[in-house]
Amino acid sequence: MALQDRMRDVEQRIQEACRRSGRRREDVNVVAVTKYVSAATAANAVSQGIRHIGENRWPDSEEKWRLLHGQAVFHFIGSLQTRKVKDVVGRFDYIHSLDRLPLAEEIQKRAAALDIVVPCFLQVNVSGEASKHGMRPEELDDLAAALRGLDRIRPVGLMTMAPLASEAEETRPVFRRLRQLRDQMNAKRAFPAPLTELSMGMSGDFEVAIEEGATWVRLGSILVGKEEEA
Fold this sequence. Notes:
The protein is α/β, with parallel strands linked by helices. It has a single domain (3-229), classed as Alanine racemase (TIM Barrel). The chain is built from 9 helices and 8 strands. The protein has helices at residues 3-21, 39-47, 58-68, 85-88, 101-114, 140-147, 172-187, 206-211, 221-224; strands at residues 29-33, 52-55, 73-76, 94-98, 118-123, 153-159, 197-199, 216-219. The chain has an 8-stranded parallel beta sheet with strand order 7-6-5-4-3-2-1-8. α3 links the parallel β2 (52-55) and β3. α2 crosses α3 (58-68). The protein is globular.
């Protein structure tokens, strides 16, 4: 399937999920996960109207960043090691995987040196799977309190990854729980400004995520295709 066909198919499915859940289409953003495709394929996607690019390792994304910097918004969507912060802060517009205080402190230090503020999603391991990164839901309060002293980090929302499931519907409780956590944090004013975003939903379950309130979905092969198809 050609890129334009995939884009139309994804757009139709997003619109239908929004219609089912009574949401506005403009409240759902798409991050094209390009980590498995070449810089040329990523550039083609941007030329066709894709604005947000998601990558999870700087060495794999460097060529794309140098080619598309200024043309696309870059999202760091993978687990971030503290020692890799220097490669990410200042290059990626959003970080989706802030999940611990030492990482936050390193982001703060690097951002201060660059005199920038970094929008971050706090990654929560809602499912409790050992294979998933992210803090436990009960750790959110402590990290929120610590972030009040880190002025170079702007918490914008929460992020999670659902377990692989044979049926997308099985992921619904995970996405619903993340939305509830965000709303609970906002109700008690845990952050200086309310969290507005939810980064959740991938190729196999993004429609359910949208129905449960996702504002950012991360789509790979279903959108940008596989390299051999590009």
